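Hi R.,

Here's the input for the zinc ion complex you asked about:
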Amino acid sequence: MDGRNIETVGVRRTGWAALDRDPQEDTVDYTCPHCGSRGRKNARRERALYHFTDGFLQDLQGEVTQCRSCHQSLRVVPVVMLHDQDETRRFEAVFSEELPAVPAQ
Ligand SMILES: [Zn+2]
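And here is the predicted structure with zinc ion in place:
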């Protein structure tokens, strides 16, 4: 880790916020700050390492990964854990300034 990885916000959805996917999956979603591609990685950090910060459970240490599109490394931090749709909406309102423009789904 060289400390120069560009950072991007990650989202780890659980419970009601993750009903649209396999409940066995435990992943972190992010948008690559280099090329704008959406990425997903398996969550590696224990949930106990997440702390309540700014109204959300967050992992402020984050995880380092590599974009599958442009192959550049990036740091996913903070990783915000979201449990339901209300939290998801609140997250989008709070973090929208930090998130790169993403086309609506
Ligand atoms: Zn990329």
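One thing worth noting: Helices lie at 85-95.

Cheers,
M.
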